[in-house]
Design goal:
Elements lengths: L29 E7 L5 H14 L2 E3 L4 E6 L11 E10 L5
Antiparallel strand pairs: 1-4, 2-4, 3-4
């Protein structure tokens, strides 16, 4: 499995080892949901967001993003971690 981690960084940050800088393209619309708690249960939040997208006629339009608002770097208690899931979306055409 290949993972890509992204965060806001200083332009002068040097790349090293597995760490690489990437500029994300702007996105017109996103489906977003805040996950509170351990990352072990993130799949449940993803499932809820994907269900909302399907019910409302949205499809995925780019790479998924996770913003770790409160995590291991700032808080050792995983039950209080906060992650925002962002999925670029586009309204899917409806066939009649």
């Amino acid at each position: 499995m290949k993972w890509r981690w992204r965060c806001t960084v200083n332009e002068g940050l040097a790349e090293a080892g597995l760490v690489r800088r990437h500029r994300l393209e702007p996105v017109r619309e996103m489906a977003c949901l805040i996950h509170e708690g351990s990352s072990d249960r993130l799949t449940e939040t993803y499932a809820a967001l994907q269900q909302w997208m399907e019910l409302n006629g949205y499809g995925i339009a780019g790479p998924v993003r996770e913003v770790h608002i409160e995590g291991y770097l700032t808080n050792s208690n995983p039950d209080t971690h906060i992650t925002e899931i962002q999925i670029p979306v586009t309204k899917e055409a409806v066939c009649s």
